[in-house]
Design goal:
The structure is a single chain. By secondary structure, the chain is α/β, with parallel strands linked by helices. It has two domains: about 1-55; about 75-215, HUPs (Rossmann fold). The chain is built from ten helices and nine strands. The chain has helices at about 1-10, 15-30, 35-55, 55-65, 105-115, 140-150, 170-180, 195-205, 220-225, 235-255; strands spanning about 80-85, 90, 100, 125, 130-135, 135-140, 160, 185-190, 210-215. Strand 8 (about 185-190), helix 8 and strand 9 (about 210-215) form a beta-alpha-beta unit. Helix 8 packs parallel to helix 10.
Length: about 270
């Protein structure tokens, strides 16, 4: 009983929980000493940290981006000319077996490989997120993934690795060139569910015929496995940062005329 209670205090040992504890203690001291101005500021900070780290707000926000795509299933997808996996899935690593370390968006790699294994398309286009082992050595992420995909029985002739790119816009421009060059009629677009709204709208605006294949449902997965948090944790800040990145990114793209006024919505296979 006591051990379980002590374990519930573990979030206070994390940076977010510890910071919240310090701020809250500061709030109590400000109230005790009647420093009302400082008390107002520390109260705002304490409530903000708690709201983000201990409530379902970040999960709900991220789920609002992912939910429209939750019904898409690989088994319902049509055949296509190519599978396009957007980058941002790894970091180069000299110490790991295949030369890279997969990040939180690793589901993109698994989903793209599974689509190819099911022969949904004959060509696999790997995103051009920039990777570099040294400042002078820069290449697209796809180059690092090719060796692993070879182990997964994907032949080198079926893989097209995009050039290094820093944004989804640069990736979309390269894919558009491939679509025009090979006369592709349909492309399966693989990216994280939270990113799909913006990515799909961008590709549609560039006249690229895409069918969205969302994966990496961070928000919905967090909701399915949700546990009661009465102390702030860092996970809420991670999910909120994902949401804000897409929220701000959407309006930046819209201001640049890269997406329409409204997202196209998930396509049906």
């Amino acid at each position: 009983m006591i051990w379980n209670w002590l374990r519930s205090l573990a979030p206070l040992l994390q940076p977010v929980g510890f910071l919240w504890l310090i701020v809250t203690v500061g709030l109590i001291l400000c109230l005790y000493r009647k420093h009302w101005g400082s008390a107002g500021l520390t109260c705002f900070l304490s409530l903000s940290i708690y709201l983000i780290g201990a409530t379902s707000l970040p999960v709900d926000l991220l789920c609002s981006l992912e939910s429209p795509y939750a019904t898409n299933r690989i088994t319902n997808l049509p055949k296509a000319d190519a599978i396009v996996m957007l980058g941002g899935v790894l970091r180069p690593s000299k110490n790991d077996t295949f030369g890279f370390n997969l990040g939180s968006a690793a589901d993109r790699v698994l989903t793209a490989a599974e689509l190819w294994r099911e022969r949904r398309a004959p060509i696999l286009v790997l995103g051009g997120g920039e990777a570099s082992l040294t400042p002078a050595q820069s290449f697209g992420e796809g180059k690092l993934l090719e060796r692993w995909l070879g182990v997964e029985q994907v032949p080198a002739g079926a893989i097209i690795s995009l050039k290094p790119s820093l944004t989804t816009v640069e990736e979309a421009q390269q894919v558009r060139d491939l679509v025009n060059q090979h006369k592709w009629q349909r492309v399966l677009l693989v990216t994280s569910a939270a990113h799909m709204r913006r990515a799909e709208a961008l590709f549609v605006q560039m006249k690229i015929p895409v069918v969205p294949v969302p994966c990496d449902f961070e928000g919905l997965t967090a909701r399915e496995n949700e546990t009661s948090n009465w102390l702030p944790r860092y996970e809420g800040f991670v999910l909120l940062s994902r949401y804000l990145h897409e929220f701000v990114g959407w309006y930046v793209y819209r201001a640049q005329g890269l997406v329409g006024a409204e997202p196209p919505g998930p396509a049906k296979g």
